[in-house]
């Protein structure tokens, strides 16, 4: 029921409108990509195939998750601020 609207919403993405997979003959696939995918259904664009969004199968230690990176950025900014404050104290 909601599948039709989802397909239409996915097709409105401003991507290349071609699948572009290499064909055995040497050309490129010119079929339109599947909804929300970069490849057509024949070339891996089957909806629901592959890992689900948010899957953590490849997560080893969490050191590169967006959360960890954001935290590290925040700490680095804080250290920078501390250094600047100390430099100001030394010169002044
Ligand atoms: Zn294709």
Question: If you had to describe this structure to a student in words, what would you say it looks like?
Answer:
- Residues 5-13 have low confidence and may be disordered.
- The chain folds into 2 domains: 1-52, no CATH class; 59-92.
- By secondary structure, it is mostly helical.
- It contains 2 helices and no strands.
- Zinc ion binds next to loops.
Question: How is the biggest beta sheet arranged?
Answer: none
Mean pLDDT: 80
Shape: elongated
Distance from first to last alpha carbon: 70 Å
The oligomerization state is: single chain
Ligand identities: zinc ion
Q: What pattern of helices and strands is seen along the backbone?
A: HH
Poorly predicted segments: 5-13
Structural class: mainly alpha
Number of continuous helical runs: 2
Quickly count the domains: 2
List how many beta strands DSSP finds: 0
Q: Strand share of the residues?
A: under 5%
Q: What integer value in Å does the Rg equal? A: 23 Å
Helix proportion = 25-40%
Protein topology:
Blueprint: H1 3-11, H2 66-91
Zinc ion is lined by residues 19, 21, 29, 31, 39-40, 42-43.
